[in-house]
Amino acid sequence: MGRSNSGKTTFLEKLIRELKQRGYRVGTVKHHRGTFEFDIEGKDTWRHAQAGADMVALATPTGFGLVKKLAQELSPEEITSYMPGVDIIIVEGMKKGSQPKIELVRSAVADAPVCPVEELMAVVSDLPLSLGLPRFGLDDFKGVADLIENQLIKSSDTAQGNVSSLREDQLKRYHRNIMLPGVGQAGQLKLLNSSVLVVGTGGLGSPVAYYLAAAGIGRLGLADADVVDLSNLQRQILHTTADLNRLKVESAREKLSKLNPDIQIEVYPFRVTRDNVADLVCQYDLVVDATDNFATRYVLNEGCMAAGKPFIYGGVLSMVGQVMTILPGKGPCFRCIFREPPSEDAVKSTADYGILGSVAGIIGCIQATEAVKYLLGQGDLLVGRLLTMEGMSMFFQEVEVKRDPHCPDCGKLE
Ligand SMILES: [Zn+2]
């Protein structure tokens, strides 16, 4: 985009805010000929970050971000490899490559675009240019956001076979989601194109799966080997008395597809083990731990760290619950905190101590909230923050936990 000293950064700040408001994750790259300086107050990169960009990089002759020396202009492939998981990367000052370009032409600086017209998809200008291209005024960041959304994002979603627009009934079903800041129709589409594996369909899995299904997570996986027992019904609200002795995943699928026929539900009526964990987690964007046993939790933690899959841990016993969000390589994993599984006879379960159903409900609801935030790329996640609730005193406590560089599951991740 455009030349320097042309009001470009001000325009970009508005565009970044607009795209964030529409629920997109945004990356920016600034090409700069001077020395490498990152996050200096008032500089362009600092302003991009202040405007809400999720990832900001500065590319100079001496460095790119904090990781790479740069002898020449970066290729689009190099830039995307540095910014995984963002929807839009706005690159300033890039000349080569066939990526869509929008040039800012301000009358105080120039009277025509620098880039050849055939390489441009639009211009932003205060001049009445007639180039046979869409032209936007200097205040029309919304128009540019529309162009980006319609011509770049939605067309690439369609090419990947994803849901690219909401039907009338979906606009109504998800209206209360769409109204939320940082969600919008784009955020709802993101949820509909997301997938979550919920391991366990009991006390935690019930609220997790119910709320994720209701929120419109497009593909839900449910793993559980158990059948419904009478003693489960005091807390496992996906199942009813009529479901006794049925597979829990079948009972769960029936309730969830009645709640939301819009979503796809896959069921795995077996235990997650070392042998199958890799195959399972690689099919999903995110994994929620709603298990009731340590053995499966350690298997899941190891499998998710190896596959680089985010993982939301939850555990409950008696009147106490715990929850934490684990982003591989970015925060501590379950094993950074609890290195070795407890010995068999030291393990206490809800069968020994009981559990109040609503306590599992609270923790499950927090897990579902974290899952939606992660998928939207919004908010502050419980990464490195082990949240504990004690239901009898209704006391919530957050403990800061750190990565263990010697952790066998995640110590080697970057
Ligand atoms: Zn770890």
From TrEMBL:
Membrane-spanning segments:
none
Give the keywords, sorted: ATP-binding, Nucleotide-binding, Transferase
Q: Which PANTHER family match?
A: ADENYLYLTRANSFERASE AND SULFURTRANSFERASE MOCS3, UBIQUITIN-ACTIVATING ENZYME E1
Instruction: State the Gene Ontology BP annotations.
Output: Mo-molybdopterin cofactor biosynthetic process
Q: Residues in domain Molybdopterin-guanine dinucleotide biosynthesis protein B (MobB)?
A: 2-126
Query: Could you confirm whether the keyword ATP-binding appears in this record?
Result: yes
Q: What SUPFAM superfamilies does the entry give?
A: Activating enzymes of the ubiquitin-like proteins (SSF69572), P-loop containing nucleoside triphosphate hydrolases (SSF52540)
**Keyword Magnesium in annotation:** no
Q: Give the source's domain of life in one word.
A: Bacteria
Annotated NCBIfam families: mobB (TIGR00176), PRK05690.1 (NF004281)
The THIF-type NAD/FAD binding fold domain is annotated at 174-408
Q: Name one GO cellular component term.
A: cytosol
One Pfam annotation reads ThiF
User: What's this protein's name?
Assistant: Molybdopterin-guanine dinucleotide biosynthesis protein B
Q: Name one GO molecular function term.
A: sulfotransferase activity
